[in-house]
Design brief:
Bound molecules: aspartic acid, magnesium ion
Number of strands: 18
Structural class: alpha/beta
Number of helices: 14
Largest sheet: 8 strands, mixed
Distance between the termini: 49 Å
Length: 473
């Protein structure tokens, strides 16, 4: 039987109410005849607090570290008490106590030594998902589900790069078949913590912050799942930020490539690199809202479905600075851009957009305090000016490819706004430009009005707009 992998983020399991809501969603899938495999994050904010505890301990602040751990201990005990009837409390409560006793022992050791390695940090932070996944299993069982806890560390095998380990997909696939598929076939619901893994030697590792999506994709890939569902607290990917543009529409389906362009620029629904293992196997990924389970969300597929409008979504990224370099020695010389980028590299500054002419280069970077030093270094190569409070507008759509006149339409829609830099990506699925931060809201609304007048109902959810129109009729 094919499984459906359902991943619930921290806010979907933040307390007993959220966990019960999650249980209903999973039960709903079982009622439809599906076979869920559940991946959960740590309860909201737990990862941050465990990291803070480890850091305090590493600084030698034993009491500070233990105080954080004590608060987390209470939160987990309280959640368990709210989830399970008194008669079922005993074993899970004493297990939670044991887990926190182990955490405290590590924290005491760390503060005695006054040193925190990445390896120990992984060990401490792994408890977030270890606790949530076990607690959620008990809660699901209490609701009558045939849930079984599986320690994610037996399935997610990684290298030893602590803090951001690289998964071994071949081994993971074998482990999924060995440990998870038989449970699925037997009609049981395996529950795993996301984010955590282990080396072949059994040393605990983590996949990097936000890594539970990655776990879901790896498990989905390993099981050749029918779909991977990422349950979060938004309705999916929208055509624009609904706070800026109240008539923004939900995008029903988007390609992986398009989602990747958008993820970087504000639509922080999920990090697309993490779902790559699923996309490579052609497994659809759905972004869904656990607070609005009826909503169909956004479906991310390997290839774009045909869409009559050129764009799927408009994203904006504020707080950028444009750096202009002018140097006549750049004319006809080679190696100049390399020298420029070496300076950005030295200052560990990422560049968002670049445009060049024969004698000038403009680049955009996130505004930060290190800019004066960066500019001082750059001024050895060119005359440097920089200006902050800029924003990038990124319009994404696979259909821009090969369509004539799109650029004219875009710039016509915002003809009253001063555009500073323009770029159209090599992938030809995005068109980006820089404007003043103060012009962003107006630009997004004008562009949205120009390109989403008559949205394709196969791609965009137009029910909300239809409802408004019928009120006006
Ligand atoms: N709990 C981890 C984090 O907060 C992993 C995740 O939630 O995806 O980064
Ligand atoms: Mg997350």
């Amino acid at each position: 039987m094919k499984a459906v992998v359902m991943k619930f983020g921290g806010t979907s399991v933040e307390d007993a109410v959220a966990i019960n809501r999650t249980a209903k969603i999973v039960q709903g899938r079982i009622d439809q005849g599906q076979r869920p495999v559940v991946v959960v994050s740590a309860m909201a904010k737990v990862t941050d607090q465990l990291l803070a505890a480890a850091k305090s301990a590493g600084r030698g602040d034993r009491n500070g570290a233990l105080a954080i751990s004590a608060r987390l201990r209470n939160r987990h005990c309280d959640t368990s008490a709210a989830l399970l009837p008194a008669a079922a409390q005993g074993p899970i409560q004493s297990w939670i106590q044991q887990e926190f006793d182990s955490i405290d022992e590590i924290l005491r050791g760390l503060s005695a030594v006054g040193e925190l390695t990445l390896r120990t940090n992984d060990m401490v932070v792994s408890f977030g998902e270890r606790l949530s996944s076990r607690l959620i299993t008990e809660a699901f069982r209490n609701q009558g589900m045939n849930a079984v806890h599986v320690d994610a560390r037996t399935v997610i095998v990684t290298d030893a790069q602590h803090g951001k380990a690289t998964p071994d997909s071949a081994l993971i696939e074998a482990r999924c078949q060995q440990y998870l598929q038989p449970l699925v076939d037997a009609g049981q619901v395996p529950i795993l913590g996301g984010f955590i893994g282990s080396t072949v030697e059994g040393v605990t590792t983590t996949l990097g912050r936000g890594g539970s999506d990655y776990t879901a994709a790896l498990v989905g890939g390993g099981l050749e799942a029918e779909a991977i569902e990422i349950w979060t607290d938004v309705n999916g990917i929208m055509t624009a930020d609904p706070r800026v543009c109240p008539d923004a529409l939900r995008v029903k389906t988007i390609s992986f490539e398009e989602a990747a362009e958008l993820a970087y620029f504000g639509a922080k629904v999920l990090h697309p690199a993490t779902i790559l293992p699923a996309v490579q196997k052609n497994i659809p990924v759905l972004v869904l809202n656990s607070r609005n389970a009826q909503n169909e969300g956004t479906r991310i597929t390997a290839l774009a479905t045909h869409c009559s409008s050129p764009f799927k979504s408009i994203a904006a990224k504020k707080k950028l600075t444009i750096i202009d370099l002018v140097a006549s020695r750049m004319l006809m010389s080679h190696g100049y851009l390399r020298a420029v980028f070496e300076i950005f590299d030295k200052h560990k500054t990422a560049v968002d957009m670049v445009s060049t002419s024969e004698v000038s280069v403009s680049l955009t970077v996130d505004s930060n305090e290190q800019l004066p030093e960066l500019a001082a270094d750059l001024s050895k190569l060119a005359d440097v000016t920089y200006e902050g409070r800029k924003a990038l507008i990124c319009m994404v759509g696979g259909n821009i490819r090969g369509q004539n006149g799109i650029a004219a339409q875009v710039f016509h829609a915002i003809r009253h706004i001063n555009v500073r830099m323009i770029s159209q990506g090599a992938a030809e699925i995005n068109m980006s430009f820089m404007i003043d931060e103060d012009d962003v809201d107006e630009a997004v609304r004008s562009l949205h009005a120009a390109f989403f007048v008559d949205p394709d109902p196969d791609i965009f959810d137009i029910t909300a707009r239809k409802a408004i129109e019928s009120v006006h009729l």
